[in-house]
């Protein structure tokens, strides 16, 4: 996936395991015309975080979780090596781009930052294939046995939301799904409460974004 056109300066926070690497990566990115390097001490919020690491250690995972919790920005991870088993954890920590350090040229890092800032992702084909297999495995072994979809919705919830999206009211949904109106209301209440959604339109929007309706 290539970087989209960026018309504003992208603020990037760089974290590296040693001062030399920190300086090199920051210097490369800072020389790009549309990327500005920021520090954690500055009040300016970052758009993207760039994390350089040897591997996905406990410390690196903790750092990624901290970035996710405090900055809530996409992460470009540049590891010397990454195990397939660590990939899913990285994605859960907002990592949207993985560049093996041996192949991380200045140009590729810059492109990954711009792609991440515009909502895209960069994964080597082997890692992408492994990620898809892990997702399929999670759906088959964890979610499906409990009647869940990887969106966090059950088949009944998806059915109710699909009919809501078509404009049906509670009584019409109950009739279509052979449920009581009270049961339909319980389904909707359960979805909105569990997923912290504000109302019915918000629930429909969530289902649309998740690709289930």
UniProtKB/TrEMBL annotation:
<keyword id="KW-0804">Transcription</keyword>
<keyword id="KW-0805">Transcription regulation</keyword>
<dbReference type="Pfam" id="PF00196">
    <property type="entry name" value="GerE"/>
</dbReference>
<dbReference type="InterPro" id="IPR000792">
    <property type="entry name" value="Tscrpt_reg_LuxR_C"/>
</dbReference>
<protein>
    <submittedName>
        <fullName>DNA-binding response regulator</fullName>
    </submittedName>
</protein>
<keyword id="KW-0238">DNA-binding</keyword>
<dbReference type="GO" id="GO:0003677">
    <property type="term" value="F:DNA binding"/>
</dbReference>
<dbReference type="InterPro" id="IPR016032">
    <property type="entry name" value="Sig_transdc_resp-reg_C-effctor"/>
</dbReference>
<dbReference type="GO" id="GO:0006355">
    <property type="term" value="P:regulation of DNA-templated transcription"/>
</dbReference>
<feature type="domain" description="HTH luxR-type">
    <location>
        <begin position="146"/>
        <end position="211"/>
    </location>
</feature>
């Amino acid at each position: 996936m290539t970087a989209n056109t960026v018309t504003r300066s992208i603020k990037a926070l760089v974290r590296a395991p040693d001062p030399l690497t920190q300086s090199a990566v920051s210097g490369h990115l800072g020389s790009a015309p549309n990327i500005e390097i920021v520090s954690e001490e500055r009040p300016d919020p970052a758009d993207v975080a760039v994390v350089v690491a040897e591997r996905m250690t406990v410390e690196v995972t903790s750092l990624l979780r901290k970035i996710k919790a405090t900055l809530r920005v996409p992460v470009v991870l540049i590891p010397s090596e990454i195990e397939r088993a660590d990939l899913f954890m990285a994605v859960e920590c907002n990592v949207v781009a993985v560049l093996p350090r041996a192949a991380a040229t200045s140009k590729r890092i810059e492109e990954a930052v711009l792609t991440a800032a515009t909502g895209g992702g960069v994964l080597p084909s082997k890692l992408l294939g492994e990620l898809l297999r892990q997702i399929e495995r999670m759906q088959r072994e964890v979610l499906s046995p409990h009647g869940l979809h990887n969106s966090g919705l059950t088949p009944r919830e998806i059915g109710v939301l699909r009919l809501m999206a078509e404009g049906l009211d509670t009584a019409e949904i109950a009739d279509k799904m052979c449920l009581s109106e009270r049961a339909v209301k319980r389904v909707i209440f359960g979805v909105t409460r569990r997923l912290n959604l504000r109302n019915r339109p918000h629930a429909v929007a969530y289902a649309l974004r998740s690709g289930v309706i």
